[in-house]
Structure formats: C-alpha cells, structure tokens
Amino acid sequence: MADFYEYSTPELVRLLGSRFKEYRMRCNLTQKEVAEQSGIGLTTIHKFENGTANSLSLSTFILLLRVVGQVNALDDVLPELPESPYLVRKEEKKAQRIRHTNKK
User: Fold this and answer.
1) Of 12, 45, 67, 81, most Cβ neighbours within 10 A?
2) What pTM does this model have?
C-alpha cells in the first residue's frame, strides 16, 4: 500500500485523476458522457484525468464519484468516528470546538 504522505498535493491530484479515468473506462463511459451526467465541463474532466488540472473542488470530485458509482467510497476517506469521552463536557453536552488555554 502506498504511503500518500510521500506525495505532494499536485501528485495526489494526478493520481486521483488517473484512477478516476480507470473507473470511468470500466463503467464504459466516455468523457463526454461523464460531462453530460455530472454537469461538469468536458475540459475539466479531460484536465483532471490527464493530471493537468490546477485544482478541482470537492463538490466537483463528489459529482464525478457519483457518475462512476463510487460516492460511498467517501466513507473510506473519512469514516465516522465513535463518540469520544474526551469531547463530552460535564453537562453531558458534546464540545463544539476545541480551545487551548494560554498557560503562563
């Protein structure tokens, strides 16, 4: 298994684009069909798959995952965590944010 920490962000985007192309082809879809089904421009899809996209929004990526039937894979990216006893306050309310106190 690859250690993704060794990759730069642009390298990871290129890797995802290449993997997406494999999924698209296994679904027997053309780039044009993906564009039509997702509402994303053909140029954006082409650049993403070829690793020349400067950036791709998370929303766009999710739309692409839907087209190739992989939107449920998002649960593998950030799985739901069990309740943490450290984040429950004395009043039985879950903490909404973390604040650090200045210790001098």
Assistant:
1) 45
2) 0.78
